[in-house]
Amino acid sequence: MHSIDDILNANLRFDKITIGAKRLAFKARGAKGGEKVKFLFGGLDQDKKYFDTAKGEMETTLTNAWKEYAFDLAGDDLRRIKSGFGWVLGGQGDGVTFFLDDVRYE
Prior knowledge:
The chain is mainly beta and 106 residues long.
């Protein structure tokens, strides 16, 4: 197990996966519908020793049906992507349950 400092300061990366990719796609749905989620990739800014060379964010409100989402990566510099995919859930009162499937760089 590595500490967050080890991860932030190590030259670990996903370039064998990301180089040449045109999009980052995934499927998501909420347990009930109405769940607000921010999906992202490339969250390490240039103030870090080994920063992500591209980043993207999208906020959405999920339904209870599966839907495909995608980041358009055309033209992005994907040489060093350390934080390949993530999400943020803001305070929504109750716990939030959502499901992901088929996350892929293609």
